[in-house]
Amino acid sequence: MLKHIEEIRFQPINRGYNSVFRPNRLSLGLVVPIETYAKSPVPTMARHLERIQLAEELGFSAVWLRDVPFNVPSFGDAGQIYDPFVYLGLLAGQTERIALGVASIILPLRHPAHVAKAAATADVLSGGRLILGVASGDRPEEYPALNLPFADRGTRFRESFDYIRRIGEDTPSFENRYGSPNGGMDMLPKPVSGKLPLLITGGSQQTPEWIAQNGDGWMMYPRHTDLQAKIICDWQARVKAAGRSTKPVMQPLYIDLTDNPETPPQPIHLGFRLGTRHLRAHLKLLEEIGVNHVALNLRFNQAAMETTLKRLADAILPDFAD
User: HEC profile for the chain?
Assistant: First the structure.
């Protein structure tokens, strides 16, 4: 496995990125909203802030928001409903330590200047806790609503990504389809560390080589661990071939945590119904194959949410703490 082949070092970026992504270790976060809404695509958002604050108190490393501008029936999930950047502003002022992630901003649906400004603002207001996932988008229904073509989202993603990277420079000057800053102006605020951590989601309509070269990490989808291990090894090999330092990998995982710690894994959508003993074993295996962070999604969880969070904190988090 990769961690036994060479000593892994991640390039530090900001407070959130550095705390969530640790070499040779796995950390645990939560997908927002932290509630059960298996029977409807729309959550209630009940106690949403209190549960995020509880997650921070219990020691989870990150919470993850999503960019879902429209409630698309075929998608079946409205996410946390609230605009991610507005919500990040609230969470920046109502939390102190937990990393604030977005998985992921759909770059082709927004002007990159607005993304860069909003993301840098959230990073500054949170004291450097922002981790920004970016994606090309997979819901074709949203594009006509914004009068945008779905077919060229890959090109738009790549050029938006480049714009966000370069607009953070001092008095930037460059040519881009989204606009051409001329060097006579500057965008403020700057991210706390001078750079936004940008994690690429899935393929995002790009080549594997481009993703390895440009992203600060990779957000993968859950797969069988044997296949996941191979994909991670291939990814890190491409990163090395691109002359880059090793980069972190993360993935989501849906769980329905039972009262009985011995409940064996039973498949659910992108995850398992299982007890804490088997969840710990699965997470340890993911850690062994090179996954650095798992964002747990409790949408289908049947037990009381506060009870589940405390059970995870007592039985699982100690095995993945610093």
Answer: CHHHHCCCCCCCCCHHHHHHCCCCCCEEEEECCCCCCCCCCCCCCCCHHHHHHHHHHHCCCEEEECCCCCCCCCCCCCCCCCCHHHHHHHHHHHCCCCEEEEEEEEHHHCCHHHHHHHHHHHHHHCCCCEEEEEECCCCCCHHHHCCCCCCCHHHHHHHHHHHHHHHCCCCCECCCCCCCCECCCCCCCCCCCCCCCEEEECCCCCCHHHHHHHCCCEECCCCCHHHHHHHHHHHHHHHHHCCCCCCCEEEEEEEEECCCCCCCCEEECCEEEECHHHHHHHHHHHHHCCCCEEEEECCCCCCCHHHHHHHHHHHCHHHHCC
- Domains in the chain and their CATH numbers? 15-319 (3.20.20.30)
187-190, long-range: CB < 8 A, 24+ apart: 187/113, 187/116, 187/117, 187/120, 188/120, 189/120, 189/121, 189/124, 190/120, 190/124
24-66 pLDDT per residue, tens: 999 999 999 999 999 999 999 999 999 999 999 999 999 999 9
pTM over 0.85: yes
Distance CA 117, CA 261 (A): 45
